[in-house]
């Protein structure tokens, strides 16, 4: 008997790895095709806040023991809930009680993206092919092959899942160009500082906003977790954002990391209240990095003619702004849904991708709209789908 063809998964990010975990539990063969040379190749990004729906999706995929390891890596924050301050005067401008943001057990649950990726990768390492940049696919008589940037092809798979993020070539091909990601023009910087730098804040989720500039506001969001505030070895992260034109990299080179990015963050916050300046004055300069704020079509996930052997998950199909913190939570819902449908079908079967896409479009379109409308008020972004620049 011949072995069944594997499910090919392009990318080894969070959504792809959680889907791999679902296939692993269902004993469905798979291959992960990742462009990087290893998990350590690039920065893992900022800390993620998990929603109740996101946690439920993750728990539905992982075994009880595996989920316990994941849960142990999560931070559980109660404290003040969400509080907003004017960055210049330190005056409180908004407050949301913790129960309104809680994920589970009355706590706000968050985890570093790198920690989450490491837990999701457990047991999948041997199924990852590194240095594989997927540029498209070819359908065969009984399956599909991924096409790589060097012109070679993958093994024949039963199905291909594009999970390689906002620049997904699989998404463009399968949707006939209908899936688009727009550059909002808004930019940000990620940073970290020792826990002692955060003594001007309590436990909880905080936003500091500076609206003093004529060309737009600058803000940061940070999450301070209990039990770690007094540990000098612990670093907390913050995410800075600004409207289009406010945060600029030299020569518009947003690949800059380290000291150059850190110096820009420090310059933008030099007039902030003394309670908040240590977050930047004491920052780990080597960890600073720029990021672009992008978003898929605010009108929702478009329809395209279904291709039974190819579909897309995560940012490849519904990129979101960080507003509301729902992008990663929607991505893991994709993984749980598609994994369940494949398990119930015993592997690839006609109709699986169509059923997945029909259900995904509903919740993902709602999430993209929520993320975009929140970003309009927070970042002042605006996307005209007929004129805005795509990435």
UniProtKB/TrEMBL annotation:
Keyword Oxidoreductase on entry: yes
Gene3D superfamilies: FAD/NAD(P)-binding domain
InterPro entries given in the database record: FAD-bd, FAD/NAD-bd_sf
Pfam families for the chain: FAD_binding_3
Name this protein carries in UniProt: FAD-binding domain-containing protein
Domain FAD-binding positions: 126-370
Keyword Flavoprotein listed: yes
MF annotations from Gene Ontology: FAD binding; monooxygenase activity
Cofactor: FAD
Keywords, alphabetical: FAD, Flavoprotein, Monooxygenase, Oxidoreductase
Superkingdom of the source species: Eukaryota
């Amino acid at each position: 008997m011949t072995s069944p063809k594997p499910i090919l998964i392009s990318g080894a990010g969070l959504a792809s790895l959680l889907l791999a975990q679902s296939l692993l539990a269902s004993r469905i063969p798979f291959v992960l095709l990742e462009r990087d040379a290893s998990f350590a190749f690039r920065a893992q990004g900022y800390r993620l806040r998990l929603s109740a729906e996101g946690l439920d999706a993750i728990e539905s995929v992982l075994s009880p023991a595996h989920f316990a390891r994941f849960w142990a890596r999560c931070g559980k924050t109660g404290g003040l809930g969400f509080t907003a301050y004017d960055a210049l005067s330190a005056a409180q401008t908004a407050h949301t009680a913790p129960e309104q943001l809680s994920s589970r057990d009355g706590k706000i649950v968050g985890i570093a993206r790198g920690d989450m990726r490491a837990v999701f990768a457990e047991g999948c390492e041997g199924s990852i092919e590194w240095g594989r940049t997927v540029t498209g696919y070819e359908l065969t008589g009984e399956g599909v092959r991924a096409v790589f940037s060097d012109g070679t092809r993958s093994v024949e798979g039963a199905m291909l899942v594009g999970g390689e993020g906002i620049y997904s070539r699989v998404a463009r091909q399968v949707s006939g160009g209908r899936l688009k990601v727009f550059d909002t023009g808004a930019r940000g910087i990620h940073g970290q500082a020792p826990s002692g730098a955060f003594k001007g804040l309590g436990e909880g989720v905080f936003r500091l906003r500076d609206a003093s500039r004529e060309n737009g506001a600058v803000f940061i969001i940070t999450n301070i977790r209990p039990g770690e505030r007094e540990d000098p070895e612990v670093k907390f992260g913050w995410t800075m954002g600004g409207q289009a034109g406010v945060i600029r990299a030299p020569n518009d080179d947003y690949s800059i990391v380290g000291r150059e990015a850190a110096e820009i963050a420090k310059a933008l916050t030099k007039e902030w209240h003394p309670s908040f300046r240590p977050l930047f004055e004491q920052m780990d300069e080597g960890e600073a990095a720029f990021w672009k704020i992008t978003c898929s079509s605010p009108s929702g996930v478009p329809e395209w003619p279904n291709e039974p052997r190819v579909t897309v998950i995560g940012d490849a199909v519904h990129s979101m702004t960080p507003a509301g913190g729902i992008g990663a939570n929607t991505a893991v819902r994709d993984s749980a849904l598609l994994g369940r449908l494949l398990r119930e079908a015993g592997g690839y079967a006609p109709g699986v991708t169509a059923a997945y896409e029909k259900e995904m479009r509903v919740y993902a379109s709602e999430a993209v709209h929520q993320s975009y409308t929140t970003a309009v008020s927070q970042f002042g972004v605006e996307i005209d789908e007929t004129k805005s620049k795509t990435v």
